From TrEMBL:
<protein>
    <recommendedName>
        <fullName>PiggyBac transposable element-derived protein domain-containing protein</fullName>
    </recommendedName>
</protein>
<feature type="domain" description="PiggyBac transposable element-derived protein">
    <location>
        <begin position="60"/>
        <end position="155"/>
    </location>
</feature>
<dbReference type="Pfam" id="PF13843">
    <property type="entry name" value="DDE_Tnp_1_7"/>
</dbReference>
<dbReference type="GO" id="GO:0043565">
    <property type="term" value="F:sequence-specific DNA binding"/>
</dbReference>
<dbReference type="InterPro" id="IPR029526">
    <property type="entry name" value="PGBD"/>
</dbReference>
<dbReference type="InterPro" id="IPR052638">
    <property type="entry name" value="PiggyBac_TE-derived"/>
</dbReference>
Length: 171
């Protein structure tokens, strides 16, 4: 006993037209309304105004680097990186001298380019870099790389972008 209906002979496209359509739940994005002002940007002074002073030409590279990455900034990176590691349930023991070594390796990797980051720690003569291997172990470098942070995510909500100025860092 087969049940046939008259709709069996109707093409699917025609049958679909006769079905009631469901209203779609459309989520409208909130549009940001900006109020643009036609004026010059305010000039703010920074801690680095003396960096381009001709008297600083006799400074060595480490002294110039220290003007940009001073102890306050390094401590901020250490604090926020340890906090981020704790949020991810990881052991948080990043220290300031390790952050300085980490930044040094990043700078050096801009000069000595290798196909893979791990080549610096390999034992082959053509890739091994003694300076890098002495500063940080490969695993320690990758641990810091996966946890380095300069802002607390909990203060800005999930997925919120943060733009930090150096003045904000010093607070």
């Amino acid at each position: 006993n087969d049940d046939f209906s008259s709709e069996d002979d109707v093409p699917l496209s025609e049958l679909r037209k006769s079905l009631p359509s469901k209203p779609r739940n459309v989520v409208k994005k909130k549009r940001n309304n900006y109020h643009w002002v036609n004026k010059d940007l305010s000039i703010t002074t920074s801690k680095f105004d003396d960096t381009y002073n001709p008297e600083n030409l006799d400074c060595d590279p480490l002294e110039i680097f220290s003007k940009f990455f001073d102890d306050d900034l390094i401590e901020l990176i250490v604090c926020e990186s340890n906090s981020y590691a704790q949020q991810r349930n990881k052991k948080s023991n990043i220290e300031s001298h390790k952050i300085k070594g980490f930044i040094g390796i990043l700078i050096l990797s801009g000069y000595i380019q290798v196909p893979r980051r791990r080549i610096f720690w390999e034992r082959e003569k053509d890739g091994h870099n003694e300076l890098v291997a002495e500063v940080l172990s490969r695993d320690r470098f990758e641990y810091i790389l996966s946890n380095v942070h300069v802002a607390n995510n909990e203060n800005y909500g999930v997925g919120g972008g943060v733009v930090l100025e150096y003045a904000d860092v010093l607070r």
